[in-house]
Amino acid sequence: MTERRDPMSPDGQVNPIDTDYKVGQDNIIVNVGPLGLDIHNRVFAISGLAVVAFVILTLAFQNHVEPLFSGLRGWLTTHLDWFFISAGNVFVLVCLGLAVSPLGKVRLGGTEAKPDYSYLGWFSMLFAAGMGIGLMFFGVSEPLSHFGSAFGGTVVEDGVRTDWAPLGAAAGDAEAATRLAMAATIYHWALHPWAIYAILALGLALFSFNKGLPLTVRSVFYPLLGERVWGWPGHIIDILAVFATLFGLATSLGFGAAQASAGLNYLFDVPLGNTTQVVLVIAITAIALVSVVAGLDAGVKRLSQINMVLAVVLLLFVVAVGPTLAILTGFFSNLGAYLQNLPALANPIGRDDANFSQGWTAFYWAWWISWSPFVGMFIARVSRGRTVREFIVSVLIVPSLACVMWMTVFGETAISQLVRDGYEAAAGAALPLQLFTMLDALPLASITSFVAIVLVVVFFVTSSDSGSLVIDVISAGGKVDAPMPQRVFWCTFEGLVAVALILGGGLVALQAMAVSTGLPFTIVLLMSAVAVIKGLASEPRTG
């Protein structure tokens, strides 16, 4: 064991990895006047050129690529749903096992390390970066969708179920359909996605803060690959991480643009369609560029805290003016329904509800996995000073409960409007519009709808901002202070990829690329779980 005290080293005892590799040793440094580049010669070149080519080809053949994207998504979720669902279960079990094991006493950054951020600032950044746009888009639409399909019961044609209900449905029973709908929704937004994020985040933090390796995905694999992580095996891992992050983010940005467009149409009659969504992506990407230039503390942290305040205000407003008693009691009953149905929902084989498990769950898991390099590295960068147990409880349990509350407030309100009030507008609206039609039945609809649009936009900005920072670190060989033009490049191309996919097939194209990049990265994550356990086993523990 060693104890190192200089400002750039861990605080207290750690067990660093002895390697001759220096951060940035394979980088190419170019200076053009006041501007400069400091890029990993292979990772940046391959991933950057591939992304540019993808954008150009998709825009050039946008009328021909939609069937390709649709077929790709369908094949992957139909044939590999068992793989995605099984992997999600593994990540949850590993996280919970680490939290209760003696390895939970390892402190990220050394035995004497102190947290860089308060709990409030930390949770704000976790929530805004990890779930923001998705919660806004699906908070009303997913519970309503599952309720409608569950209430309608199962439909069998030619011996095959064709309905989209989770598990065995709840035909004609509104109460049972509500509980099943909320359980299915919470399943997609609680433990499993946050476990996916936590595995990679923990590995990145451990091998950077404790082991002294670059803050890049390849470093996590040192226990498995040794010095080969600095060669082509490591290059491939980092390139896959860039692709997964970029296309996972593009999917979320596409959802955000669709919802912001629907909200603007609802409030101000702004025309719907691809043109509006493309303009929104370009405008919000421009705002994200400003935040990127401002940096992590001034940009992402401040925007995240603003968004947390707005989100809490909107949530409390809906609790106060909506079906308050149903919401408050629903939180606990929904949590109970989730735990009761969790084994069946998480079962990867022998499912009758193929449309649900393939069309919903397999897509979600691939999407979360494609987000994991981005969210994982972001969480790692802001989690120094936490013990592994504190890290897992905070990253896994606290955000999960926050998601349960969010889905309960908005989902219960929308279902209550339909069942108790006979208000069918939200259930009958297009998915991006359902949040606004739900709010329309409550007081101050114009104000709350405008707040919802602002939330979508700011979540959009924080995701793009922090995503470009993360991709820049990976493509710069682990350097966290790379020149600004690189961040501008990645932020710009995040927006361009979203634009290309919107024009080349809309949400189907976005989902197809998230699943496609999520597949190889699932294998990377499963391997990283083994590496994390091996890395933690060699570290000194506190207390």
Gyration radius, rounded: 23 Å
Mean pLDDT, all residues: 89
As laid out across the biggest beta sheet, the strand order is 1-2
Roughly how many Å apart are the termini? 17 Å
Parts with pLDDT < 50 across at least 5 consecutive residues: 1-8
Give the overall silhouette. globular
Q: Estimate the strand proportion.
A: under 5%
- What's the main sheet like? 2 strands, antiparallel
The number of helical runs is 18
- What's the β-strand tally? 6
User: What is the chain-wise order of helices and strands?
Assistant: EEEEHHHHEEHHHHHHHHHHHHHH
Helix/strand/pairing class, anyone?
mainly alpha
Q: Helix content range of the residues, please?
A: over 70%
Descriptive overview:
The chain is mainly alpha-helical and 543 residues long. It has helices at 43-60, 62-79, 81-100, 119-152, 174-189, 191-210, 222-225, 232-268, 274-294, 296-321, 324-345, 354-381, 388-419, 425-428, 434-440, 445-475, 484-503, 506-537, and strands spanning 2-3, 13-14, 27-32, 35-40, 156-157, 160-161. The strands form 3 sheets. A two-stranded antiparallel ribbon has the order 1-2. The chain has a two-stranded antiparallel ribbon with strand order 3-4. Strands 5-6 form a two-stranded antiparallel ribbon. Helix 10 (296-321) runs antiparallel to helix 16 (445-475) and helix 15 packs antiparallel against helix 16 (445-475). The longest helix has 37 residues, at 232-268. 56% of the residues are buried. The model is unreliable at 1-8 (pLDDT under 50).
